[in-house]
Amino acid sequence: MTEYKNKLAIVTPAKNESNNVYGLAESVAKLEYLPDLWIFINDDSDDDTEKKFRESINTFPSLKQHCTIKIIKHISKDKSYSLGNKYSSVVKFGLDFLLKYEEDSKIKYDYIGILDCDILIPENYYSFLMNKLENDPKLGIVSGGKQLEIDSNNKTSVTFSSRTHAPSGFRVWRRSCFNDTGYFVSISQDSVSEARAIMLGWKVRSYSDLSVTMRKRGDNFNYEYYGKSDYFRWIPNYYAIAKKLLMKMKGHNQEANSYYNGYCEAMKNNISRLDDELSRRYFKNRIFYKLIGK
Predict the structure, then answer these.
(1) Which residues touch 64 (CB under 8 Å, ≥6 apart)?
(2) By the 8 A CB rule, do 260 and 240 touch?
(3) How many alpha carbons lie under 13 Å from residue 43 in its C-beta half-sphere?
(4) Rounded to an integer, what distance in angstroms lies between the CA atom of residue 185 and that of residue 76?
(5) Do 228 and 184 share a domain, yes or no?
(6) Which residue has the higher pLDDT, 282 or 98?
(7) Looking at the structure, do residues 16 and 145 belong to the same domain, yes or no?
(8) Which residue, 79, 193, 235, 241, is most buried by CB atoms nearer than 10 A?
């Protein structure tokens, strides 16, 4: 097991994930570098997610031997399984618990990560990212960049994240970057925090030679969410059209139509949009920032 002088804490939001928690625990237990603190958030599950998680971590002695595990319960009026405001509110609940735990325990964590319940990570996942972070002090947010997405028919498709996008469900922040950007409840907090990080001089990177296995995006919700999220973030209409066409060129016709329908519906209903000036400036000029590699 790789030892690092800096400490890593991760949070895992979980809503009705009893079928996934064993695989998640096994994946973490096999890591070359285990997180020092793991906060598991039971988001008012209707099934036995928490019970199955407790049973799973007891199956792998190395977890409790090398990692402090805290299981907390989140209760909210919104009982749905969804992204956006609901997801970010659960994650924020876990991050707030982390800050309080630090205060009480007098332990400071140098890196903070999110690991969703449907994500399986390879043995070198955190050791790879720790090496990247420790060798480049300007790196603020990092993640794997290759996704093996498994759909409801057990068919696997391979997708890649943009080099300057670290998906929320398996990312790691440098603590000082996290302190700079903050984390607040919004429709697309992963992209918002990235935009703030970039505008504040941090680098955001995903690495295509580091992969995760996950549930296919859109299996538990409609792709319209992504269109609505882009409108919320002030992504220009021409950019949304280009994104739709690119998705179609890749053969994702249904997802492309659903995405743009979500964007148009949000525009028609004139939904409230992101009011953070720093990230809004980034999204309005996204093509420029992409061209200069940010």
Answers:
(1) 57, 58
(2) yes
(3) 26
(4) 14
(5) no
(6) 98
(7) yes
(8) 193
CA dihedral (82, 85, 88, 90) in degrees, to 10, reads: -70
Measured between alpha carbons, how far is 127 from 271 in angstroms, rounded to an integer? 42
Tokens 């570098």 locate to 33
Domains contained in the chain, number: 2
pLDDT in tens, 92-104: 999 999 999 999 9
The gap between the terminal CA atoms of the chain, to the nearest Å, is 34
Nearest to 219 by CA among 37, 81, 32, 44: 81
**Tally of residues, the chain:** 294
For the segment 55-73, the average pLDDT, to the nearest whole number, is: 92
Q: List the domain range (segments joined by +) for residue 230.
A: 222-294
Q: Is residue 142's pLDDT more than 80? A: yes
Helices of type H across 41-188:
49-59, 61-66, 85-105, 125-135, 175-181
Say what the pLDDT of residue 3 is: 57
* Token digits of residue 160: 């890649």
Q: What is the DSSP string of 151-172?
A: -TTS-EEEEE--TT---GGGEE
- Quote the CA–CA distance of 63 and 14 in Å, as a whole number: 18
- Of 89-93, 107-111, 215-219, 271-275, where does mean pLDDT reach its minimum? 215-219
Spatial distance between the Cα atoms of 13 and 113, rounded to a whole number of angstroms: 12
Give the tokens for residue 39: 């906060």
Does 161 have pLDDT greater than 80?
Answer: yes
pLDDT for position 82: 52
**Is residue 209 scored above 70 in pLDDT?**
yes
**235 and 202, same domain (yes or no):** no
Among 191, 219, 247, identify where a domain stops: 219
| Backbone φ and ψ of 94, nearest 5° | -70, -40
| Spatial distance between the Cα atoms of 28 and 135, rounded to a whole number of angstroms | 24
Query: How far is the C-alpha of 7 from the C-alpha of 110, rounded, in Å?
Result: 5
160: β partners: 146
Q: So what's the pLDDT on residue 215?
A: 84
